[in-house]
Specification:
The protein is mostly helical. It has a domain of 99 residues: cca-adding enzyme, domain 2, CATH 1.10.3090. Helix content is 59%, strand content 3%. The strands form 2 sheets. Strands 1-2 form a two-stranded antiparallel sheet. A two-stranded parallel sheet has the order 3-4. The longest helix has 25 residues.
């Protein structure tokens, strides 16, 4: 749309009418570039708070084009760029919902699309559907953090449930280990940056450790802290805990439920990080022996912190 020199509206595609109806509609040039499908979904997310939806004619047209291979030549880096921008926005869950409406999610993120329709135990997941759950987790992650890497980890933490054989539903034994392989495959395919990949991988593999933190033995707790590399990267622990809290709260009726596991793991970390490795260095010992000595001291500190927590 434009105004001419007489301030008369030039509107060959009836854009004003669509604005008044709050509709997002494609133009004749829309299908010249497949990335516009993702941008359409991103606009649907950005303007959802204003009541905008995608015109049904556009949904139908995009679905037809996708069925004929519209997205087959999409450059991975460009696809990730749109996903990243969506994750930085206010409503990334709407972005992924829009991709589903357009039949595009299964082409771009088949590992996420596969989660929809996969049931979980109703006792723990009143929403039942795993796909709905991960979008709820994403919403909670957005409420807790603006970091797109944390939000991405929330989105992909349960990918392994999409590969559970139907005869085992609604249980998902060992979904964490299966999910890690899928996270690796997804990140390699879309050439997702390492910081996103690393956090997503850790949340996928260890989120149930966080949920059961108070049950874990000191040695297992230390292994978790080492896996997170949080003695060198303290922020990693915080990002991990936010994603895990989002997972616990991303369930119908649990959105504001407390997550004491986060405070517990912070206390465990503080105790273990209080050990001064420098004071344990002995010139008569080799590197492996010194490392074991540090691990032993940290394990003892965790044991004491665990006792203090249980007695508080």
């Amino acid at each position: 749309m434009a105004l001419n020199q007489n301030k008369r509206l030039i509107d060959p595609l009836n854009g004003r009418s669509d604005l008044e109806k709050r509709l997002l509609r494609h133009t004749p040039a829309f299908f010249d570039d497949p990335i516009r499908t993702l941008r359409l979904a991103r606009f649907a997310a950005r303007y959802a708070r204003l009541g905008f939806t995608i015109a049904q004619e556009t949904i139908d047209a995009v679905q037809r084009q996708i069925a004929h291979g519209l997205l087959d030549g999409l450059v991975p880096e460009r696809a990730w760029g749109e996903i990243q921008r969506a994750l930085e926005g206010d409503r990334p869950s709407r972005f992924f919902q829009a991709l589903r409406e357009l039949n595009a999610l299964g082409v771009i993120l088949p590992e996420v699309e596969r989660l929809f329709g996969v049931p979980q135990p109703e006792k723990y997941h009143p929403e039942i559907d795993t796909g709905i759950h991960v979008l709820m987790v994403l919403d909670r992650a957005c409420a807790l953090s603006t970091d797109p890497a944390v939000r991405f980890a929330a989105l992909v933490h349960d990918l392994g449930k999409g590969t559970t054989p139907p005869d085992q539903w609604p249980r998902h034994t060992a979904h964490e280990a299966r999910g890690v392989k899928l996270v690796d495959r997804l990140c390699k395919r879309l050439k997702i940056p390492n910081p996103y990949h690393t956090l997503a991988r850790l949340v996928c593999e260890y989120h149930t450790h966080s949920h059961r933190a108070e049950e874990l033995k000191p040695g297992t707790l230390l292994k978790l802290l080492n896996a997170l590399d949080c003695f060198r990267r303290p922020q990693r622990l915080e990002d991990f805990l936010i994603a895990c809290q989002a997972d616990m709260q991303g369930r119908t009726g649990f959105e504001q439920a407390p997550y004491p596991q986060a405070a517990y793991l912070r206390q465990i970390y503080q105790a273990a990080s209080g050990v001064d490795p420098g004071s344990l260095i002995d010139p008569s010992l080799d590197g492996n022996a010194i490392r074991k000595k540090i691990e032993h001291a940290r394990s003892l500190a965790i044991t004491q912190a665990k006792k203090a927590w249980n007695n508080h």
